[in-house]
Structures are given as structure tokens and as C-alpha cells.
From TrEMBL, chains A, B:
It comes from Lacrimispora algidixylanolytica. Residues 7-332 form the DhaK domain. This is phosphoenolpyruvate--glycerone phosphotransferase. The keyword Iron does not apply. GO terms for cellular component: cytosol.
Length: 337, 337
């Protein structure tokens, strides 16, 4: 894949320099390290929310730092976890005494580093940190009831950020913001499809191969193996298969409400995302499921992968309230802040 | 290129169905024809602003219909002009007595159909229509002074929409909204680079070929030939070449201000767009040009083409005011409306 970049080893830092130059009203870095990104407008007394993970998923994570959503994030190299020290730096900067909630995807490297950061924040700085690990990819194996979640975190984390951010901005305390984040995380399910691979800049060749007439249902956002590979099918067939898997995993009663996110993975045009949204609507309507709100676009990408994912968040009145709350970040604006 | 679609002949209408289902608060269609899109919230007494052109450029045009920007648009098939009848339908729906301004890109098919629609609106409906044709692609040939503009309209039209929309929303009359649109159109310049072709769904094969190690500087958004084809260079080299061509075409004095749009053409990740924004900032700083605001992302695409464009809008106090005005559309939100 051709890339418009300079030296691959500078890819992430130069991207970050561009973000800081383009959005000075929204974000700055905590300390010298460009990879520790925090909001320009710390809100005193509010629970801080931090996230992080590997680069290569823009607008995740950086694009959601701002009013009503996140207060900071730390990023690693492309598809690499940031360090515990980075997370600690962000944590120190965003805590104003009310504690900090970490929300991150269910990947071993991130879990290891964020847990260590939480421990350091508590021991060294006296900052109370709680954690919510988001994992909602229906294509990855499900743990037995009561066991630790084994599913990958993908695009549905957007909903977790949005609801938790709404709760924190409403002045809720740490335990309550955590409860809302957990509720959103447990109510969301995602399924994806990939048509092409993507290339990590420092690696220089695609992470996998896929034939010109094939697709892979359920592939993860770092190219993790999906459920099945087959001939490319029609948008309606693909959407039906993906949505059935989601609805089997988290059944809806007729009359229940959902928020829907149709997310482009990088190279797939918005046109195709809307064609899929149309079919999602038809299927949900047939089942009596009301769509409270649609989000269509690139929310969580895999560099230049072609493909998309569908996420459904099951809603109740409480989550609807937090979903409706205004937000203003470089990549997500809603309502009047 | 693989596409997530159903029958190619339904591509545009199914995309439109998705848009109407996803954004009912923002847009609806005028009459039965899905391809005549209008705002759900007509503002009485305001000058109406309409645009249109071929599909395949989302979020252009549909994504900019809403408060503070456009009131309607008509679209054709992918890369095909809409008909004069469609434009007339949109015009009738959005006129509330203050007249309608058409803003569209400098392409023969669009000019022909929009001029006919303007004539029909005047003759048959008594609606006063003015027109501004946006053409700012520095890579296309420039007409002699005083001659009709021969340049292609590309991503810079976003700035024309934004400023004209600000003026119309401020209650300016038709001649004044037209003057502002013309001023924005004459102050903006764009240069693009393409790395891969794109495929019109009904055609089924790419519009051109380009080698795996090549780029084309100055290619148009429908694959029109650019200025030169060569080996893929670094982001800094590409940015420098593109920006020099823009700054030679519309010179800036030290201390003058610009708005900058770094626009992804479809398959190019945001990361790369920010790497380019970083270099744009360095070059403008060296020349003493102040950047008033950055816009980075996919604003005007070419289906799944890889590449990007840089647009500069030269600002004065008047344009800054209209650029700052709040807007709320499916794809562009700014400030509190």
C-alpha cells in the first residue's frame, strides 16, 4: 500500500505534531512526550476519563478527547500499546481530585500497561483509578458466564466513551461513571468485515493476504482472524449475516431501542456505509427494533483497510440520556456545549 | 476494487435511502425523487442555497445540507450531473421568496443543467436564481484575465458553502450572499495528489492505471489528468510541491491569514493527512502566513481513491466572520447553533 509519509519511524510522532498544530483549542500533550495527549480544557472536580492503545485507528483515540467525552489518552506506535509511564503521565495531568477512569480495549498489552499505570497512580500519586475493559466483538470467542471477558474491543468503544463522558460531565462520581461505562460496554455488540489488508508503516508489507474476490467476516481491527473467509457477497447479504450474529448474541424484544454505528475501517467509501445502514434499518424494522440514532462514518479505523463494522448499543432511558448529552471534540460534535 | 454494494445500478439510490434513514432530522427529499435532497428545516425568509453534481464524493454534497450551510442539492449517478428538472425541484422547495443561490463546481454538465434550471425557475416559477461557479484547482489550466474561469472545482468548494451559508443565515439578501460566495471562491486554491484510481460502480474497472510506486500530482477528483506523474515521494516533498504551486498562484504577504483544508480523497488514512498538515504549517510559518483554522479529514472524496488535496482560503475579517459562524449538518458541525 502506498503511503504519504516520511520515514516510517516518524509516522506516529509527525501525525501527532499535525494533530497538535491543527487542534490547539482541543488538545495538548502532558509533559514532553507527544504520545501523552490531554484536553486543553481540564474541568476541575470532574472525574477524568483516559484511554489509549496503539496508533493506526484514527479518529480513535485522539479524536474523542474534548468536552463531554475523554480527557486524555496515550498512544503507542502503530498497533502497539503505550507504556504504563505514559498512562501515568496522562493520569496525573487529568486528575483533579475526583479520580480517573480508564476505558480501553480488551488487548493483553493494553491491559498489562494500564493495570500497572493504575497501580502506580494509586501508590505513587494517591490518585484513585478505576478501569473498564471494553470487549464486544462478536466474532471473537466468548468466555463462559462469570469468566473474564475474552472478546476483542473494537468500534463499540465509541459508545462507552460517549456514555461515560456524559456521566462524568454531569458531575457523577467515579463509581457511578464506572457503572455507566460498564453498562454501555455490556450492552454493545460489534461485527466487522474486511476486504483488504492494511500495512503497518514500519513493517512495510500487508499484515495478511486476501484474494481479489474474497472477504473475511469477523476480522479484527489489527487483522486478527475472523469467523469465515469467502467470496465477496452483496451488501445486503453481508449486512444480514453480520447483524444476525449480533442479534443472536444480544437478543432484543420487539419495541426495544438501539443506537447503531456503521463504521468504515479506512478505505471503504461513505456511500457503501450508507448502503449497509439502509439494510440494517430494514432488518431491525422487521424485528420491531427501534433505532434511536444512527452514527455513520469512520469512527475506528485500521489504517487503510477496506471494510466496515456494525455496532448496536441496546438502550434504556439512562443510556439514552448520556448518549444525547452534548460533546465537542476534534472528531465528534453533538448538540450545543 | 472490491465494493460492499448490491446491484451497481442501485448504488446511488440505496446510498440515498441510507442517508434519509440515518439523518431524518437533517434531510428529506423534495417530491418522489430521492436524488433531490433538501433540508428538513426550511428557514422562512432566508436566501436558499443549492448545490449538486455527480455522486461519489461523499460527504459532498449531501453532508453539508443543514443549518448554516446548504438548503438543498441534487445529485446524479456517480460522476454524472443531475438534471435541470432535479435542480428545479430542489429550487422550488427551498425558495421562501428571498431567491436561491446555486453554488457548484466548474464542470460542463453541471453548468449546462444548472443554467437551464435557473432559467426554468425564473420563467416558470418566478424564482430569482443567482449562480456562483467554483473552480479553484491550480492543476487545471487558468484562463486569461477577464476570460471565463476554466479551472475545475474541487475540495475548496467547502469554503464557498461555509461562507455563503454564514451570510445567508445572517439574513443577507441574494446579491450579498452571491458576493460573499464569489469572494470565497476567488480566494481559495487547491492542489491534489492521487496514488490510486477509483472505480465507478456501473463501470466496474478503474478509471486509469498507475504503477505501485507512482503518484500523480494535480489529478482531478474524477481522475482528470494532473500536472505530472512520477515516483512516489515523501510526504514533506509532496506537500512542498503542492503548496508552492498554490502560493505561486495566489501570493500571500507576510502576516496574511489563511484557512487550511487537508482533504482525504477516500482511502488515505487520517494519519497521513495530519502528517501533511504538519508540513503545511511549517511552510506557512516560514513565509509568515498565519493559519486561522485547520480542517483535516474527508470533505470531498473520489469514491475510494487514495490521495489527498490541500486547499488554502485567503481570509479577511469579513470571510473570517462567516467562516466562524455556527453550522450543523450531518457532516459538519461548528459552534452552537
Amino acid at each position: 500500500m502506498k503511503k504519504i509519509m516520511n520515514a516510517p519511524e516518524n509516522y506516529v510522532n509527525e501525525m501527532l505534531e499535525g494533530i497538535y498544530l491543527a487542534h490547539p483549542d482541543y488538545v495538548t500533550h502532558a509533559g514532553e512526550n507527544l504520545r501523552c495527549l490531554v484536553t486543553s480544557k481540564i474541568v476541575e472536580g470532574k472525574v477524568g476519563i483516559a484511554t489509549g492503545g496503539g496508533s493506526g485507528h484514527l479518529p480513535l483515540f485522539l479524536g474523542y478527547v474534548g468536552k463531554g467525552m475523554l480527557d486524555g489518552c496515550s498512544v503507542g506506535d502503530v498497533f502497539q500499546s503505550p507504556s504504563a509511564e505514559q498512562m501515568l503521565e496522562v493520569t496525573k495531568r487529568i486528575d483533579t481530585g475526583a479520580g480517573v477512569l480508564y476505558i480501553y480495549g480488551n488487548y493483553n498489552g493494553d491491559i498489562f500497561n494500564f493495570e500497572m499505570a493504575a497501580e502506580m497512580a494509586d501508590m505513587e500519586e494517591g490518585i484513585k483509578v478505576e478501569q473498564v475493559v471494553a470487549g464486544e466483538d462478536v466474532a471473537s470467542p466468548q468466555a463462559a458466564p462469570g469468566e473474564k471477558n475474552t472478546r476483542r474491543g473494537v468500534a463499540g468503544i465509541f459508545f462507552v466513551y460517549k456514555c461515560a463522558g456524559g456521566a462524568a460531565t454531569a458531575g457523577k462520581e467515579l463509581s457511578e461513571v464506572k457503572r455507566i461505562a460498564e453498562k454501555a460496554a455490556s450492552n454493545v455488540r460489534t461485527m466487522g468485515v474486511a476486504l483488504t489488508p492494511c500495512t503497518v508503516p514500519r513493517v512495510g508489507y500487508p499484515g495478511f493476504e486476501i484474494a481479489e474476490d474474497e472477504m473475511e467476516i469477523g476480522m479484527g481491527i489489527h487483522g486478527e482472524p475472523g469467523i469465515r473467509r469467502g467470496k465477496l457477497e452483496s451488501a445486503d447479504e453481508i449486512t444480514t449475516e453480520m447483524l444476525e450474529k449480533i442479534l443472536k448474541d444480544i437478543p432484543y424484544e420487539s419495541g426495544e431501542e438501539a443506537a447503531v454505528l456503521v463504521n468504515g475501517l479506512g478505505a471503504t467509501p461513505l456511500d457503501e456505509q450508507y448502503i449497509v445502514a439502509r439494510r440494517v434499518h430494514q432488518i431491525l424494522k422487521e424485528r420491531g427494533i427501534e433505532v434511536y440514532r444512527y452514527y455513520v462514518g469512520e469512527y475506528v479505523t485500521s489504517i487503510e483497510m477496506a471494510g466496515l463494522s456494525i455496532s448496536l448499543l441496546k438502550l434504556d432511558e439512562e443510556l439514552k440520556g448520556y448518549l444525547d448529552a452534548p460533546a465537542d471534540t476534534p472528531f465528534f460534535k453533538q448538540g450545543n456545549v
